[in-house]
Specification:
By secondary structure, the chain is of the alpha+beta class. Helix content is 31%, strand content 29%. The protein folds into 2 domains: 3-88 and 129-319, Bira Bifunctional Protein, Domain 2 (BirA Bifunctional Protein, domain 2); 346-435, Rossmann fold. It contains 13 helices and 23 strands. The strands form 7 sheets. The chain has a 7-stranded mixed sheet with strand order 3-9-10-16-13-12-11, with helices on both faces. The structure holds adenosine-5'-triphosphate (ATP).
């Protein structure tokens, strides 16, 4: 792909996402609101599939990880203990001419304002990105609260509950997929940096002596996860945080980065959190959050390896990874999303060749009913078959099934493959096996 092609890849993906019901700007009829997005009929299926894919790998397939689903609003003291009220800040500079604000790191020394070209900026100022709200009904008795700035805090809050209510023993992990909110200074690049987004987090609790081993383990495991998801493996890499940029309690941290059209960008963080979080919450809550090993009675504050990634960000990167424009010769081309079949919104599209012949429509409907017992299928009886293929290609549907006159004779259908565009005649009774 040339540089110009790469540069407009995000624009093309954004347009496709809107055109085909994957991602819409929120409140669009009011002009939109920066940093908030809605998922459309195809997008919600893809996002749910993506979350299921993560949950299967991180929870279902493991005996040592359990899930929770925590609330978005917590006791406000949580954010004092975690340091977010003091430190969850970005540094902002403002263009003196057009007053647009930027994160300091976005503007290199001597760079002009990307909005108006001026070179004059204010001094950097700190700006807290936690969203505030109020809890309670009486005007003078309302309590200030915060929408969680990171989902993982709920896991620390529930650590003791999980130990007391399950059979888990250290080492074990708690996983959660949930919303987080950040009043980002410069939201943008579709859902890459939004103000409301979802995170997939796993906090793995270990004995301090085993920390090194588990940190390495999860680093590799999480990279394998992303490798299984993306097509272009060369667009994935680790980036180690420089030692002088680590928070004081961290011995090490890595980002898993994906190479986007605008450069390498964080997809997930693997963090060495030590005993910091549980110690802080013990201190601020006055509750003992240490763990007693039932096997030898040893009591200690567990150390934590964190894996924390963004669901929306991953979905966006998947769209970038999957988008292809193919030249089909004779002046024809197609746009296709070669997205992992497990993530595709629909696994199969069912086409009755014509919509006005009852036997064909009924046959197609019976296949729809049969397949939708186990997989997500979609119906399309509009326009010619070529157009229907193009539409399904654009949303990444791996297979299209056409029911035609021959079906009525011998109970076979045409199955067409998204990636190769090859078509095969398959018996209806063999469809389940063929598709799996
Ligand atoms: P960044 O440096 O890009 O702001 P971060 O280091 O602040 O990210 P973390 O706090 O480690 O991010 O959050 C874990 C994950 O949550 C990130 O790897 C990213 O995938 C996702 N994430 C963080 N902020 C946003 C956002 N504003 N919009 C979408 N996803 C986000």
């Amino acid at each position: 792909m040339s540089d110009t092609q790469k540069n407009d890849l995000l624009e093309k993906v954004t347009a496709l996402a809107k055109r085909r019901g994957i991602v819409y700007p929120n409140s669009e009829i009011y002009g939109g609101i920066g940093g908030f997005y809605d998922y459309g009929p195809v997008g919600v299926e893809m996002k749910n599939n993506l979350k299921r894919y993560w949950w299967k790998e991180m929870v279902d397939k493991r005996e040592d990880v359990v899930g929770i689903d925590g609330a978005i609003i917590t006791h406000p003291k949580v954010w004092e203990a975690s340091g977010h009220i003091q430190n969850f800040t970005d540094e902002v500079i403002e263009c003196k001419k057009c007053h647009q604000r930027f994160r300091t790191e976005e503007i290199a020394d001597g760079q002009k304002c990307p909005n108006c070209g001026s070179q004059e900026f204010t001094e950097p100022r700190s700006y807290n990105i936690l969203f505030e709200t109020e809890v309670g009904v009486l005007e003078n008795a309302k309590t200030k609260a915060y929408l969680r700035g990171e989902a993982c805090q709920t896991i620390y809050l529930d650590f003791k509950n999980v130990v007391d209510s399950t059979r888990m023993q250290i080492p074990f992990g708690i996983a959660q997929i949930g919303k987080a909110f950040r009043n980002e200074i410069t939201p943008g690049r579709l859902t890459f940096r939004s103000r409301e987004f979802e995170q997939w987090d796993m906090q793995f609790f270990v004995h301090p002596n085993d920390m090194e081993k588990w940190f390495e383990y999860w680093k590799e495991k999480r990279m394998d996860f992303y490798k299984s998801l993306y097509r272009k493996q060369e667009n994935l890499r680790f980036k180690q945080h420089p030692k002088d940029k680590l928070v004081f309690y961290a011995k090490d941290a890595y980002d898993i980065e994906y190479k986007t059209p605008w450069g390498w960008a964080e997809n997930e963080g693997i963090h060495w959190r030590g005993d910091y979080d549980l110690t802080q919450h013990s201190k601020f809550s006055g509750k003992d959050l240490s763990y007693t090993d039932p096997r030898n009675g040893e009591k200690y504050i567990p150390w934590i390896v964190e894996t924390s990634g963004g669901v929306d960000r991953t979905l966006l990167m998947l769209l970038l990874d999957a988008y292809e424009e193919e030249d089909l010769g004779e002046g024809k081309s197609r746009t296709v999303l070669k997205v992992h079949p497990d993530i595709a919104g629909y696994k199969v599209a069912i086409f009755p060749l014509v919509s006005n012949k009852e036997e064909i429509v009924n046959k197609a409907r019976s296949i729809f009913e049969l397949l939708s017992e186990n997989i997500k299928v979609v119906w399309d009886d509009r326009g010619n078959i070529g157009k229907r293929y193009r539409y399904q290609d654009e949303i990444g549907t791996p297979y299209c099934i056409t029911v035609d006159y021959e079906t009525l004779e011998n109970d076979t259908v045409t199955v067409r493959d998204r990636d190769t565009m090859e078509q095969e005649r398959v018996k209806i009774v063999d469809l389940d096996e063929y598709l799996s």
